Amino acid sequence: DYVLTESDFVHKDDLHYPFEERGLQFGDGIYEVIRVYNGKYYLIDEHVERLYRSADAVKLKMPFSKEEMYQQLDALLQKNEIQNDAKVYMQITRGSAPRDHAFPLNVKSNLYAYVQDLSRKMDFMAEGVSAITRPDVRWDWCYIKSLNLLPNVIAKQEASEQGCFEAILHKDGEVTECSSSNVYMVRDGKVYTHPAKENILHGCVRTRMKQFCEDESIPFVEEPFRVEDIQDADELFLTSSTAEVMPIVQVDGKAVEGGQVGSITRKLQHKYEQDAGIKESQ
Ligand code: PLP
């Protein structure tokens, strides 16, 4: 189990950080989660581009050029002999230094990336999951994949306490996204989702959804829908690198369209599998 760091590969048991680490003390850093199928990255360009956008947005100096980052990420899979489905978690913080809000001088960023096993959530994807709705109390810059995830963590915990898979977040009734995924409503053959503004994460899988809808001549409407609209939705689903295309069949205890998974969601699941090069659906 080797972890990639800014300087070298380190065995996971040998990786330690000082307690004055800015990721730990301020959440002063950014991260990515990249899906791996059959030992190969999926949507790697989208993730690397987003990582560097996040770094720019928070004035964080990346330890690697983009080109080096690709090489290092490949080396990480090789070093760990990954051939199956997995995910790579990577974070970069502003480094370790005596605690002070302002950026420390001459301190190098800390980076680590490691591989975790991850199997596809076949039953959930087949049957659909339930969700709750919660107010979105996060900051205005959710397009940055920052380490500050406390509102997301609390929302997900509340979902979990109610036996639900996700929390659908809304600002004054307007649905933004979920605690760790993007969310979409299907009505009258059209797919609605919040526009890729600064207040949501621009999901890499969301980008593919837009393309798949275009391929299939399904209107992809980037306009926010409201929590009340969910009760009249024909279909509801969420996407993320770990959840893929996940149908939502119940919200706040009420079934969405009879609790059945809809045909557009099924079509998009199928397109995802093809795009990701997943051979067979069980
Ligand atoms: N929105 C939030 C808040 C997330 O944390 C995530 C990913 O984990 C997503 C959306 C989906 O992003 P992606 O499709 O790039 O995995």
UniProtKB/TrEMBL annotation:
Transferase in keyword set: yes
Reactions accelerated catalytically: D-alanine + 2-oxoglutarate = D-glutamate + pyruvate
Necessary cofactors: pyridoxal 5'-phosphate
A GO molecular function held by the record: D-alanine-2-oxoglutarate aminotransferase activity
EC nos: 2.6.1.21
InterPro entries to which the protein is assigned, alphabetical: Aminotrans_IV, Aminotransferase-like, BCAT-like_C, BCAT-like_N, Class-IV_PLP-Dep_Aminotrnsfr, D_amino_transT
CDD domains according to UniProt: D-AAT_like
UniProt entry tagged with the keyword Transferase: yes
Enzyme class: transferase
Source taxon at top rank: Bacteria
Keywords: Aminotransferase, Pyridoxal phosphate, Transferase
Subunit structure: Homodimer.
Family: Belongs to the class-IV pyridoxal-phosphate-dependent aminotransferase family.
UniProt name for this protein: D-alanine aminotransferase
Species in which this protein is naturally found: Halobacillus naozhouensis
Classification of source organism: Bacteria, Bacillati, Bacillota, Bacilli, Bacillales
